Amino acid sequence: MGLRGLVAIVALLATGIVGGYAAAAYLTPQPQSAGTPQPVTATSPSVPGAPPTPLQEDPTEPALPTDLEMVDVMVGSGRNAFVFPAPAGWSRSEPSSNEVKYKLPGNPGNTYVLRVEQVKSQHETIPDIVQATIVDLDREFDDFEVTRRTYDSLEFDYLYDGYRRFGFLTWLDISRSGQAEAEIAVTGREKDLDGMRELIIRVIRGIRAG
User: Fold this and answer.
1) DSSP of 81-110, one letter per residue?
2) Where is the segment annotated Disordered (predicted)?
3) What CATH number has the domain spanning 70-209?
4) What confidence score (pLDDT) does residue 35 get?
């Protein structure tokens, strides 16, 4: 799958640690100086790290609208198929038999994209797949950050080829099987965020067994 898999963000309060170090330094007897100070040779001089990748300017195509016309489409086959609304007029690609992507024809790939995948065959609960996806995305992309996490969804941003990208991901248990069955993802630019949020909400509300 393209975008898989999720580690919870933990805020560490360092105040007590810093305070402990400060108190220890204050209470430690200071060494008495003797003789003339001599220069000390560095034992392991630090090596400068690689400079950060320059941030590229986003494509100038208009932001994703919030009032798209939608049409019902299908992914999968047989009893495992499901129907969902997708933007009318967007081109469809099928990376695999259980995954489809939609984008506005003529737009660069780093504007906005809708992806819907059937994930029932993975036999994972939604919390497990959320946690695994966080781990996978953190490995795959530079400067990855989760900005919001719920039981069944993620909002995040990351760097890809120097572009700042934003993403929404959610997982659904359509038939109440106890496992994740559908994965819905929308990625785009910062100025697309309102349209991205509205698009994924409309897909979630309209998805159903085929």
Assistant:
1) -EEEEEETT-EEEEEETTEEEEE-TTS-TT
2) 32-62
3) 3.40.1000.10
4) 52
